[in-house]
Amino acid sequence: MATLFLCSFAGISQAQTSAEQIPAGRGNYADLVELFGEFHQFVEGNDQRTRRIIRDDSGRAIEPITDHSRQSIAGQLEQLGRFQARLEDMNVVSWERSQQADYLAVRSRLDQQSFILQRIRAWARDPGFYVDRMLRVTFTELPVEGEAREEFLARIRSVPVLVEEAQKHLDDVAADYADLAIHNLNKADGVGHGFPYRAVPPAGVLGWYDDLIERAAVQPELLEDIAAARASVQAFDAWMEIRRPDWTAQAGVGEKAFDWYLKHVKLMPWTSKELVLLGRRELDRLWADYALERNRNRAFPELEPAASAAEYQRRIDETDRRIRAFLQEQNIITVPGDIGELDTNAPWIVRPGGRNFWEEIQFRDPSPDHLHAVIPGHRFDAIMAARNADPVRGEIFSDVRAEGWATYLEEAMLQAGLFEDRPRVRELIQIFGIFRAARVPADVWLQTRQMTVDQVVDYWLPRVPYLDRNVARVDAEIYLRRPPGYGIGYTVGALQMQRLLADRKRQLGDAFDLRAFHDELMSNGRLQLSLARWEMTGLDDEVRIFWQREPMPESESPD
After folding, report:
1. H-type helices in 116-254, by residue range?
2. Got the DSSP string for 332-366?
3. Per-residue pLDDT tens for 364-420?
4. How crowded is the C-beta side of 257, counted as CA atoms within 13 Å?
5. Which tens digit of pLDDT belongs to each residue from 155-209?
6. Of the candidates 378, 316, 323, 372, the residue with the CA atom closest to the CA atom of residue 347
7. Three-class SS state of 464
């Protein structure tokens, strides 16, 4: 297992948890479960309103637009305040450890929602918040009939209304967000995550509307509404181009807010500066491992990419068989017998400009992403999580836990011996790790306003083998525009997994069983890894700091 370089959160090693820091109010654990259910409905209810079909004044079906008025946001914050007051009035100090872990996890969800409403404010700062929704309707397969036709018309008719709302609310736009939105409206991103395949990708969102218009030849009665939607998107693009020179604010949330988010939402025991050190250390280590591995394998032929879809599928099928057999034979993790084929995460694509980063790796050998995204990574993880009926653990989701687990698996399976007979695949695992590690400082720099998207792309390109500009730009966009800290979760989450593994092995000695360790982690739900470590080991050195609450910092000037 990789050498672990861990900084401690400032002062955490000296911090002591006293009974006074843990709430000692009146509510019991059942009250926590009830509150979390109400909160879940509150958040989902706001989202569901954007998917409900209503009728406009003329009786036409239309999909409503979420209300982002100041009054609506103020009302949501008031409701969050009521939830938080109830949360503080619970007798947490008397609960068992697993219930206290649930409390911290639930509280982090409330803090996240508060942060989204008060600091991220995508509806006011990020035109892509609206562009994303404009895009997805264009993927609809035509013809559509019955209820599907009604739903499609409702969605396409909502686009002009969405544009009006965007123009009303976008009053604090950051330059990076604006540039990404304008790019995505007019140009293909070169990656197409989740997009339908086209031999020549349409030119951005507007190109996808043109694609939809062509396909609507089989159902011409839809053309009027599609054309009206496209015209409104075109007008939105022109509106942004006119205003772009005035949009000079920086994206991200600022260092103080990001550090608050790391502690209160991510439940991480490190500051943003410490995360940069962690990421850089891992980047150096993985490059050193890669250099040594390349030298070790110098007599072996290089791996060649699959030459056809059929050959690639054969490689995927063989990879799936090898991994499943290895998990069983080497006592890695329990795979229930009813979990069958889980497909793949990287489909066969022939691009006019050649393979992108993911395809350079996966078409040579599917193992790295099959471990990460299929089994026992994301798809397997999601199935196991869906089987958790616990009202808290079955609903809590930590992106660091999800990405950390999946990234941990890549190098863990290398160390466990999966690639002893496939030396060149070990190099691909290390390249995956290099890209994950390079994301850590870049994610921090994006959120703390030390770099722009273009600067991050330029930072990555010379540091990651096979990386192309399109994948780099799309990745930077993902980690800038998602809730803060998503990009750090891969490598830092893997480090947390390694620390948990090391702690548990030290505690149990010869009684340690790797399968039991992984199975226990799966059964505990997708909690933040600091909480999983506390629950599984009893070690509270990381979680002590989380009982100490600070108010969310005031907004920092983005200029």
Report:
1. 122-125, 128-136, 146-169, 175-186, 204-215, 223-243
2. -----TT------SS-----TT---HHHHHHTT-S
3. 999 999 999 999 999 999 999 999 999 999 999 999 999 999 999 999 999 999 999
4. 22
5. 999 999 999 999 999 999 999 999 999 999 999 887 877 889 888 889 999 999 9
6. 316
7. coil
CB atoms within 10 A of CB 354: 9
Q: Using alpha carbons, select from 532, 501, 294, 257 the residue that is nearest to residue 398.
A: 532
Whether 490 contacts 378, CB under 8 Å = no
Please give the angle made by the CA atoms of 124, 71 and 49, to the nearest 5 degrees.
Answer: 75
Residue 56 has pLDDT above 90, yes or no: no
Q: What is the largest CA-CA distance in the chain?
A: 73
Q: Which residues of 365-383 are buried (b: 16+ CB within 10 A; e: fewer)?
A: bbbbbbbbbbbbbbbbbeb
Q: Coil, strand, or helix at residue 5?
A: coil
End-to-end CA, the chain: 43
Query: How many CB atoms neighbour CB 110 within 10 A?
Result: 21
DSSP, collapsed to helix, strand or coil, labels residue 429 as helix
Q: Tokens 């025991």 sit at which residue?
A: 269
CB-based contact 272:257 (threshold 8 Å): no
Q: Which two tokens stand for residue 442?
A: 């870049």
Q: Are 426 and 419 in contact (CB under 8 A)?
A: yes
How many CA atoms lie within 13 Å of 336's alpha carbon, on the beta-carbon side? 11
> What pTM does this model have?
0.93
Q: Is the peptide bond before 484 cis (omega within 30 degrees of 0)?
A: no
Query: What is each CA distance from 283 to 5, 272, 359, 412, in whole angstroms?
Result: 12, 16, 22, 17
Helix (H) or strand (E) holding 61: strand 61-62
Paired with 249 in beta bridges are: 174
Count other C-beta atoms under 10 Å from residue 420's C-beta: 9
User: Which residue do the tokens 């911090």 mark?
Assistant: 15
Cis peptide preceding 376, ω within 30 of 0: yes
> Would you say 282 and 440 are in contact if contact means Cβ atoms under 8 Å apart?
yes
Residue 62: enclosing H or E segment and its boundaries?
strand 61-62
Give residue limits of the domains in the chain: 128-246, 256-297+311-520
